[in-house]
């Protein structure tokens, strides 16, 4: 072992990776704990939201992402979906 | 009063089997009667770690299916006479484990032993579920590393919802056993510290087992580290963890080798 490396490692925390590990875990587990026990909730929400939106616009069921998140103060529900290009309208405008 | 303890982790390779053998042996060395039960059907290893691999005749599945009784299947340790092993089957499928069968075997073991220690397979499937199902308390084996901590969190959630105790609305006692801990690396900031893991998982600490050659040496020769080298750091840490399981309030110290200045510079142990 290089004796100089010993000192740089001991006295500078700039290169240490443990704090990153800790932070990543805290964020990840907060999300996962919110979902545990209700793992079907996201699936149910996804289906029902999709149904409502599909009544009015064409959506690709494979391109819908529903995500639940949680911070200290609030929970969030994130819905991310792609709406298909209304091809009939596009051709109508072009002609 | 007998206690059923599950040693679990979610992640594989963190030291469940080693810890089951060492804690079981440590409790037996204190005069407690102990049965260690291998739930890893198809991939049994507790027999090997205990050096009993050539003495297996009947196994857990045989007992569950009525092809053998407990007396025929239990293997008595040759070194510590109050320690017994109930091996898993190597050839059968884990589907051969039934809920009722496991319940019956655990109830029977409860009658005969002070401690029944169930060595859980990795994962969160049937084997792991049945290993924890009838437990009174759980030891969660965790390495100070992100994937192990995450999986432990998942297992804690399972212990709080899927066990008989949890379903009865009772509190499941859970203790954290940190294994493969490297004090020097944690000090340098390259490994999660004990406090970090404790804060994230928020369950009480049972012990810290240092990364050590003695653990590998013990499994090489088929002897739990508390028997093979009782004065080694991991053996002492396991022995203290076993005493804490029995209710003793011992301070937990971070086990480390004492090194002198030259030893530090050259990475060698001082005498």
Automatic annotation (TrEMBL), chain A:
Keywords: Cell cycle, Cell division. InterPro entries: MinE, MinE_sf. It holds the Pfam family MinE. Gene3D superfamilies: Cell division topological specificity factor MinE. The keyword Cell division applies. One of its GO terms (biological process) is regulation of division septum assembly. This is Cell division topological specificity factor. It comes from Lichenifustis flavocetrariae. The gene is minE.
From TrEMBL, chain B:
ATP binds at residues 11-18. The keyword Metal-binding does not apply. It holds the Pfam family CbiA. GO terms for cellular component: cytoplasmic side of plasma membrane; cytosol. GO terms for biological process: division septum assembly; negative regulation of cell division. It comes from the Bacteria. Residues 5-225 form the CobQ/CobB/MinD/ParA nucleotide binding domain. Keywords: ATP-binding, Cell cycle, Cell division, Nucleotide-binding, Septation. GO terms for molecular function: ATP binding; ATP hydrolysis activity. Belongs to the ParA family. MinD subfamily. ATPase required for the correct placement of the division site. Cell division inhibitors MinC and MinD act in concert to form an inhibitor capable of blocking formation of the polar Z ring septums. Rapidly oscillates between the poles of the cell to destabilize FtsZ filaments that have formed before they mature into polar Z rings. Interacts with MinC and FtsZ. This is Septum site-determining protein MinD. The gene is minD.
């Amino acid at each position: 072992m290089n004796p100089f490396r010993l000192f740089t490692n001991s006295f500078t925390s700039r290169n240490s990776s443990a704090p990153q590990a800790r932070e990543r875990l805290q964020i990840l587990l907060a999300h996962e704990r919110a979902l545990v026990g209700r793992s079907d909730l996201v699936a149910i929400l996804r289906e029902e939201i999709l149904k409502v939106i599909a009544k009015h616009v064409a959506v690709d069921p494979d391109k819908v992402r529903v995500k639940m998140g949680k911070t200290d103060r609030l929970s969030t529900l994130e819905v991310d979906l792609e709406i298909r290009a209304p091809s009939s309208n596009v051709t109508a405008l072009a002609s | 009063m007998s206690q059923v303890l599950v040693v679990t982790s979610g992640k594989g390779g963190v030291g469940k089997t080693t810890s089951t053998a060492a804690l079981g042996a440590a409790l037996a060395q204190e005069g407690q009667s102990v049965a260690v039960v291998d739930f890893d059907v198809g991939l049994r290893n507790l027999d090997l770690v205990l050096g009993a691999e050539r003495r297996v005749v009947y196994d857990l599945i045989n007992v569950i299916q009525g092809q053998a009784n407990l007396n025929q299947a239990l293997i008595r340790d040759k070194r510590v006479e109050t320690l017994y092993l109930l091996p898993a089957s190597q050839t059968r499928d884990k589907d051969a484990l039934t809920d009722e069968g496991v319940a019956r075997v655990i109830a029977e073991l409860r009658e005969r032993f002070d401690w029944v220690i169930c060595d859980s397979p990795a994962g969160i499937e049937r084997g792991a579920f049945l290993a924890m199902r009838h437990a009174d308390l759980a030891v969660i084996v965790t390495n100070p590393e992100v994937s192990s901590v995450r999986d432990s969190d998942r297992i804690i959630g399972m212990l709080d919802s899927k066990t008989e105790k949890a379903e009865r609305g009772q509190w499941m006692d859970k203790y954290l056993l940190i294994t493969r801990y490297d004090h020097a690396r944690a000090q340098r900031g390259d490994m999660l510290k004990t406090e970090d893991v404790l804060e994230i998982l928020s369950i009480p600490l049972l012990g810290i087992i240092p990364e050590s050659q003695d653990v590998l040496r013990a499994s090489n020769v088929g002897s739990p580290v508390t028997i093979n080298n009782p004065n080694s750091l991991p053996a002492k840490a396991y022995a203290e963890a076993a005493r804490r399981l029995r209710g003793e309030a011992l301070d937990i110290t971070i086990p480390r080798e004492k090194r002198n200045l030259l030893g530090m510079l050259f990475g060698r142990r001082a005498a």
